[in-house]
Write a structure and sequence with these properties.
single chain; 97 residues; alpha/beta; 5-stranded mixed β-sheet; 36% helix
Length: 97
């Protein structure tokens, strides 16, 4: 598993490109978006990549960037027309204080 750590200065377009390239390159089944932890699973349900956003969820600009990123990636997943899916739990109240 490869871990990628990102802070609040992440670029939405750059991270979108990273995630979509992984999804195009690997046999990916699931993107599990769970607040700051975005895990990419293969068909054996092994985590191949973990994007960890070390950000303040109380910062509205950061949350907007995360929402934009999420929508970009979901749009890509839906365009794949295969069995790849996602689970979205980005804005769980646990992460917002």
């Amino acid at each position: 598993m490869k871990e990628i750590f990102l802070d609040e200065n992440f670029d939405v377009d750059e991270v979108t490109s990273q995630i979509t390239a992984i999804m195009d390159m690997w046999s990916i089944q699931l993107l599990d978006i769970n607040g700051p932890n975005w895990a990419i699973y293969d068909y054996d349900m092994e985590v191949k990549y973990l994007f960890q956003f070390q950000v303040d969820f109380n910062d509205i600009e950061t949350r907007i960037k995360l929402e934009d990123l999420k929508l970009n990636v979901i749009h890509h997943i839906e365009s794949l027309r295969d069995e790849t899916t996602y689970r979205d739990n980005l804005t769980n109240s646990v992460f917002i204080k």
